[in-house]
């Protein structure tokens, strides 16, 4: 996306504003499918939690993608966006049996990650196909908050509980048509991923009627120039070859499934903010912007690094700034970052803002959530309006709060 186009979007739609580039999403989708071109049956289920705007979901549906969902609301969004039920997989954690049953009624692929619900669901609905989420006890991911395959994780059924799992399946005579794992996000070492995959292959041998094996995702994207990323092409070559070998020994061609989210949308997004104040203290120069962790929480929550560019002054001399928000707490986007000279009124662009940014936004401090814009075929389209004061009050109920008797100490 060109600076001139981004500046025009900030002017036309106001700031702060999220901007996504459809071309980048298509590029990433094609890159992943090309990396696994040796696999006869590949299914990519876009992880809707990364960015769930219905226009983005419709874009993935047009690419013949599937969709990975974690709540019944995401399932309903997927159906609304045009996904057929068989293109949707439901991979929740810790939800009620009632929610899983309600999703199953919609014809969606169910993925269960605990023995209690597995036994209850299998007893009541033995004919409904179920995928099982395995915890391989492999530590992977760039932050403890996004590492979900280790031994202390709440996600998945431990591989050490396999005898009990198999007993439940045998006793209920339920239909297991898939197995799944997800080790974590920001995976750098593909050997760790391949090691976990071998655990999944070994587990798959226990089930004779599988249709697919889902390897999760967590591929790392580069956050700045020169940053390292998951080598998708090497992973595709190695895992694709190993998967084909497994299918031969299994005796049937299975589908290799992934559920990428960040990999597909992160680089497509930029977050545009306006600089309200440049504040010099005794030791720091702060660039204070018209946003905060209510709009982009990842730096405070995960310590994530988003490259920040001054698109109003891209050729200015570089200086060091701490970029902070307007929330009434410590609210830091970047510390002591080298950025082209910033003046009040400049527009800053946060890169890699497509994944887990708007979807984690809130109304903290009673601030409005931003607008979202999609650049499609070179044109900017508003795909979510900026909230208003009426949105803040929506669903609140005003009651008579007059106190009839004074409270005495």
Automatic annotation (TrEMBL):
The organism of origin for this protein: Winogradskyella immobilis
Any Pfam family matching the protein: Orn_Arg_deC_N
Assembly information from the UniProt record: Homodimer.
Enzyme class: lyase
Similarity remark: Belongs to the Orn/Lys/Arg decarboxylase class-II family. LysA subfamily.
HAMAP family linked: LysA
InterPro entries: Ala_racemase/Decarboxylase_C, DAP_deCOOHase_LysA, De-COase2_N, Orn/DAP/Arg_de-COase, PLP-binding_barrel
Gene3D superfamilies noted in UniProt: Alanine racemase, Lyase, Ornithine Decarboxylase, Chain A, domain 1
Catalytic activity: meso-2,6-diaminopimelate + H(+) = L-lysine + CO2
Residues carrying N6-(pyridoxal phosphate)lysine: 49
Gene that specifies this protein: lysA
Keywords on record: Amino-acid biosynthesis, Decarboxylase, Lyase, Lysine biosynthesis, Pyridoxal phosphate
Gene Ontology MF terms in the entry: diaminopimelate decarboxylase activity
Cofactor(s) needed by this chain: pyridoxal 5'-phosphate
Binding residue positions for pyridoxal 5'-phosphate: 218, 356
Enzyme Commission no: 4.1.1.20
Protein name: Diaminopimelate decarboxylase
KW Lyase (keyword) present: yes
Binding site for substrate: 298, 302, 329, 356
Described function: Specifically catalyzes the decarboxylation of meso-diaminopimelate (meso-DAP) to L-lysine.
Pathway per the UniProt entry: Amino-acid biosynthesis; L-lysine biosynthesis via DAP pathway; L-lysine from DL-2,6-diaminopimelate: step 1/1
Domain Orn/DAP/Arg decarboxylase 2 N-terminal: 23-266
């Amino acid at each position: 996306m060109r600076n001139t186009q981004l500046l025009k979007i900030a002017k036309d739609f106001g700031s702060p504003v999220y901007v996504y580039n459809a071309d980048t999403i298509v590029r990433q989708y094609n890159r992943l499918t090309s990396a696994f071109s040796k696999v006869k049956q590949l299914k990519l289920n876009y992880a809707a939690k990364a960015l769930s705007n219905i226009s983005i979901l419709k874009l993935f549906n047009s690419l013949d993608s599937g969709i990975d969902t974690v709540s019944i609301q995401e399932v309903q969004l997927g159906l609304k966006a045009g996904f057929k039920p068989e293109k949707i997989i439901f991979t929740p954690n810790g939800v009620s049996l009632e929610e899983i049953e309600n999703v199953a009624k919609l014809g969606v692929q169910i993925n269960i990650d605990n023995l209690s619900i597995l036994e209850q669901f299998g007893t009541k609905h033995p004919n409904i196909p179920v995928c099982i989420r395995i915890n391989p006890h492999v530590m992977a991911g760039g932050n403890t908050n996004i590492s979900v395959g280790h031994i202390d994780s709440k996600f998945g059924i431990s591989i050490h509980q396999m005898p009990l799992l198999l007993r439940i399946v045998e006793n209920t005579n339920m239909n297991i048509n898939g197995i799944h794992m997800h080790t974590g996000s920001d995976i750098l070492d593909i050997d760790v991923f391949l090691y976990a995959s071998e655990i999944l292959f070994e587990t798959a041998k226990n089930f004779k009627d599988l249709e697919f094996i889902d390897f999760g995702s967590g591929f790392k994207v580069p956050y700045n120039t020169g940053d390292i990323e998951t080598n998708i092409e090497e992973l595709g070559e190695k895992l694709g070859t190993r998967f084909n070998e497994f299918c031969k020994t299994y005796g049937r061609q299975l589908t290799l499934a992934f559920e990428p989210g960040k990999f597909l949308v992160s680089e497509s997004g930029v977050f545009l903010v306006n600089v309200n104040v440049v504040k010099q203290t005794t030791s720091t120069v702060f660039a204070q912007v018209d946003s905060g962790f209510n709009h982009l929480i990842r730096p405070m929550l995960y310590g994530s690094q988003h490259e920040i560019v001054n698109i109003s002054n891209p050729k200015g001399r570089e200086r060091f700034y701490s970029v902070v928000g307007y929330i009434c707490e410590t609210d830091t986007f970047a510390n002591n970052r080298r950025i082209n000279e910033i003046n009040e009124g400049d527009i800053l662009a946060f890169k890699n803002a497509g994944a887990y940014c708007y979807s984690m936004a809130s109304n903290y401090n009673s601030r409005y959530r931003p607008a979202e814009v999609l650049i499609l075929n070179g044109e900017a389209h508003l795909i979510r309006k900026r909230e208003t004061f009426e949105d803040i009050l929506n669903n609140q109920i005003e009651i008579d709060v007059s106190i009839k008797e004074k409270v005495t100490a």
